[in-house]
Every structure is written in C-alpha cells, then in structure tokens.
Amino acid sequence: MEGIPDHLDYGLTILFIGFNPSLRSGETRHHYANPRNNFWRILYSSGLTPRLYDASEDGELLKLGYGFTNIVARPTRGIEDITREEYAEGREILHAKLSEYRPQVACFVGKGVYSQFSRKPRVDWGFQQESIIEGVHEFVAPSSSGLVRMKMDEIVDIYRQLSQFTAKDIC
Q1: Among 92, 100, 106, 156, which residue's CB has the most CB atoms within a 10 Å radius?
Q2: CA atoms of 11 and 113, how far apart (whole Å)
Q3: Model pTM?
Q4: Residue 1 has pLDDT above 60, yes or no
C-alpha cells in the first residue's frame, strides 16, 4: 500500500503534520479517514473550519489555507510499525517541505510527531518557544486518534488556540 498524496501549496496558513496514514487512509487515499479519528470534528469544534468536513474533502481545505502531510508516508496499523530509518528519512523530507513551502504554522498532530521531528524528548502543547525552521511557527496539538485518553473538550481547547492565532493573524 502506497502513501497518500500531500496537500501542499505556498502561502498556507497551517500545515497539519501527522505521524503517518492509517490503513483506512491508505485505502481511501485521504487524510484522517479512519472513522474513529476525531480530526474533522476537532477542526470544526475549534472554529478552524466553517463546517464539518469529511476526509474525502481533504483537498478542499487548501482553499482555507490548510495543507496536510505526514512525517512518514507509509500507511500502517499503528505507529509502533514505523521504523527508526523511516523516521530519520521522514525528518529530512519534512524539513525540506517546511523549508520550501514555509507555512505560517506547522501544526504537529501529536506530541510524538513533534518529538520525532525536533528530537526533543519533552514538549508542551501549543506554540513552541523556538522554531526549527526559521519563520515557521511550530504548534503541538493532541493527536486526533480515537485512542487518545484526553477529554474532547481539552483537545478542542488546544486547537482553539490555533484558531484564535490564525483569526488574529488574518484580521
């Protein structure tokens, strides 16, 4: 099973960065397609999207200034199936994508994704003090996986910080 296409463009407000596609996303070729994944509900509930989108509409979010990529392209059942070599290669590829496209915000969907990219063992939610890519704000948000044990309200509140930042920046 091959990876799913990135949705990248110049001038993005937010580039959402996941670990890697689920098997369901690999089958459908759309980001966050697993029905147990809360990504689309979180975006809507936090005010990042004007309506509830479906995974099949992921490419439409480019019109809102949002793009999608992953640190590892290969779909797997879980992150435990990703190898060290894939992370090392993914870090280099992601660094190149961020350097080239320079979104305003790189939103890492999960602390683990950011830790793999930054090589920092401990990170906090929200905007990071120092960016790895100059001029790109780095934001760490909770994973949208249905396996996450945080309350949905807490997750949405963290994403709402991102929504408030982008609204302030756009005005």
Answers
A1: 106
A2: 23
A3: 0.94
A4: no
Residue 49, helix vs strand vs coil: coil
For residue 72, which of 120, 22, 32 has the smallest C-alpha distance?
Answer: 22
* Count of other CB atoms within 10 angstroms of residue 109: 26
> Nearest to residue 115, comparing CAs of 98, 100, 101, 132?
132
Q: 141: which strand partners?
A: 109
Tell me how crowded residue 151 is: count the other CB atoms within 10 A of its CB. 9
Are residues 22 and 75 in contact, defined by beta-carbon separation less than 8 angstroms?
yes
CA dist., res. 92 & res. 56, Å (int): 28
Kindly give, in sequence order, each residue whose CB lies less than 8 Å from that of residue 134, ignoring residues fewer than 6 positions away.
none
Between the alpha carbon of residue 19 and those of residues 70, 75, 117, 152, the distances in Å are 5, 10, 10, 20
Neighbours of 164 (CB within 10 A): 12
pLDDT in tens, 105-149: 999 999 999 999 999 989 999 999 999 999 999 999 999 987 788
Query: 171 pLDDT band (50/70/90 cuts)?
Result: very low
CB 113, CB 16: distance < 8 Å? no
